[in-house]
Amino acid sequence: MDAMIQVRDLRKTYQMGEIDVPALRGVSFQIRRGEFVAIMGPSGSGKSTLMNLLGCLDTPSGGQYLLDGLPVEQLDRNLLAAVRNRKIGFVFQQFNLLPRQSALENVALPLVYLGGVSAEERRLRAQAVLEQVGLGERTHHRPKELSGGQQQRVAIARALITQPALLLADEPTGNLDSTSSAEILTLFEQLNGQGITVVLVTHDPDVAAHAARVLTVRDGLIAGDASAQRQPVNGVVPAVDTVRLRQRPSVVRRSAPKRRSI
Fold this sequence. Notes:
The chain is an alpha/beta fold and 262 residues long. The chain is built from 7 helices and 11 strands. 30% of the residues lie in helices and 29% in strands.
């Protein structure tokens, strides 16, 4: 499989007055098309900064980021917005649904901003992705009429409607109970099984264990890269707690960031 994401020596430094604060110190990895990867780390590790860069919500201070072959670090603001709209589907901890709109209308909204899609096609595509996430019979329900897990399914359907190259989820189970969380993580596994590239950002190792591969971020560096070996038994993938992780060595670059002149 070819690479969906290629990151080489990616760095991000924030300026606080006269002080340079490095959030990412030079990370390198790649994610192949069709992989399910979790990015895990504690608060302050740099994982949120990395997510913002991968989602084209921010630009790096240095290094290279190729998304589906596009050199993201070279794109201007308008092109970055176009990449976000067409290449990436976002799922956040907060569902961010419009309360007065139905599930169908919420899901169809990205196509309105994308432009060039008729109202009938928007309706048909929204209906299709709601059925894909198991909410085909809830299309006319408003968010307040749906459970937390169902609202997150609507948010996932909204992320899928533009047929993105990458599904990027930031703490998608953070506001859900354990049952709903398990259902959402199972849905991500099913979507990945359909060939969708999924990158999930979390601080929870139990959530990360649902991915086929886990990248651990610590102190702005890639501290670990683990692959899950899931062997089906009689056609059934074993439960998460039976998955054994094989640690793979990662190259860590610890060069000090260059101080910018103020």
